[in-house]
Amino acid sequence: MICPEGHARTLACAILITAVGNGLYLAGAVLFLTRSVGLTGTSVGTGLAIAGLLGLGAGPAVGHLADRVGAREVYLVTLIAEGLATSALAVVRGFVAFVVVAAAVIIAEQGSRAVRGALIARVGGRDRTRLRGYLRSVTNLGVAVGAAGAGLAIQHDTRAAYSALILADAASYLLTALVIARIPRQPPLPEADRDRSTHPHGLDLPYLGVTGVYGLLSLQYTVLTVALPLWIVTHTSAPAWLVAPLLLTNTALVVCLQVRAGRRVESVADGVAITRRAAVLLAGGCLLYSASAAGPPIFASLVLTVAVAVQTLGEISQTAGEFELSFALAPDYAQGRYQGIFGIGTGIGIALAPALLGVLCIDRGQAGWIVLGGIFLGAGLIVGPAARWAQRTAAHLADA
C-alpha cells in the first residue's frame, strides 16, 4: 500500500486508530455480555438486531446534516457520541440496558459512517474511490491488530478485563476526533448547486435500486464470521481450529489487494464490470464451500482454503465496485445523505444475513450454498441495468 499524502494521510491515521479500538471491542464484547453481564447468546443476537433496526435511519439523517453544515464538524460530533455510547456499555447489567446502549452505539455508528463517506469524497476528490479502498485496507489491518491485542484481556476472563477493552475502544473514538480536528473545514456546496438536481418527492429510486443490489451482495460479509464456523463444525471433516487461519487469510488478502483493485475502477462502467466479476467469484466460493462437505479432513481443509481465497477476491472486487458506484451515482452536494442511504442497504443485508445463512447453508446444507451462489449471480446480472438507470436519471435531472 502506498500511503496517501496531506489531509488524506491524516484521515488514514484517524481511521487506523478507530480500527484498532474496534478490534479490541469486537474480540471482547460478546464475551463480556455473556460471561460478565450474564446474557445468553440468543439475547445478545436479539438485542443487536433490535438496535440495528433502530439505527437504520440514522445514516441518511446525519449525512443530510453533514451536507448542510460540513462533514468534518458533524464527524467530530458523531465520534464523540460513539465514544460516550461505547463507554456506557461497560456499566450494562441487564438486557434492557444493553438494548438501549447498543441502539445508541449503532445510531452514532451509522451516522458516523455516512459522514465519513462524505468526508472521504471531499478529501479524496477524483481519487476518492482509491482512497476509500486504502482506508478499507487500513481498517482491516487495525482490526486485526486490535483483536490480537485483546487476547490478554480474554485470557483473564474478568469483568474488569473486558471493561478495559470496551473503554479502550471508547477512548479510540475521542483520540480519532483529535486527529480529525486537524483536517480543515470542508464547507458545504452553495444552495444554487443544491437546487440544480432534485428528485421528485426527495426519493431517488434508481439509487435505491443500486443500493438494493449491494444489499444482496453484502450477505457475503457474514459468511466468514457466522456461516463458515458452523459449516466446518457441522458439515465437514475439517478441524474446528481451521477457522482462525482462514479468517487471517481473508484479512491478509484484503490488506494487500484492496488498493490494487481500486486502481482499475475509474468510472461507473468499471464499477459495474468489477461487480459482475465479484458476483461470479462469490458464487464460485459458494460452490467450493458446498464441495467441502465431501471427503477426508485434508481434502475438506484444502477446499475450504481455496473457497475463502476465492470469496475474498470476490469481496475485494465487490467493495471496489461499491465504492465507485456509491460515490459516482450520488450528487456531490448530497454525498452525506446518499452515503447514509447506501449504508441502509448494506445494513439490512448484514442484519438479515445470520438468520438467512443459517436457514440456507446450515439447515439446507450443500443445496443451500448453491442457492446462495445463485443470489449472488442474480445481483451481478442486475447491477448493470440498475446503474445505467441511475445514470440516466441523474443526467436528466442535471439538464432540467
Summed up, what is this model?
The protein is mainly alpha-helical.
Indicate the topology.
Blueprint: H1 7-37, H2 41-54, H3 58-69, H4 71-88, H5 95-124, H6 128-149, H7 151-156, H8 159-180, H9 191-194, H10 205-217, H11 223-235, H12 243-263, H13 268-291, H14 297-328, H15 335-363, H16 366-399
Uncertain runs = 192-198
| Count of helix runs | 16
Annotated CATH homologous superfamily of the largest domain: MFS general substrate transporter like domains
Q: Structural class of the secondary elements? A: mainly alpha
Number of domains: 2
Beta content comes to under 5%
- How far apart are the termini? 42 Å
Q: What's the alpha carbon Rg, rounded to whole Å?
A: 21 Å
CATH architectural category of the largest domain: Up-down Bundle
Explain this structure.
The chain is mainly α and 400 residues long. It folds into 2 domains: 7-187, MFS general substrate transporter like domains (Growth Hormone, Chain: A, Up-down Bundle); 200-399, MFS general substrate transporter like domains (Growth Hormone, Chain: A, Up-down Bundle). The protein has 16 helices and no strands. It has helices spanning 7-37, 41-54, 58-69, 71-88, 95-124, 128-149, 151-156, 159-180, 191-194, 205-217, 223-235, 243-263, 268-291, 297-328, 335-363, 366-399. Helix 4 (71-88) packs antiparallel against helix 8, helix 10 packs antiparallel against helix 14 (297-328) and helix 13 (268-291) runs antiparallel to helix 16 (366-399). The radius of gyration is 21 Å and the shape is globular. The chain starts with 6 loop residues before the first helix and ends with a helix.
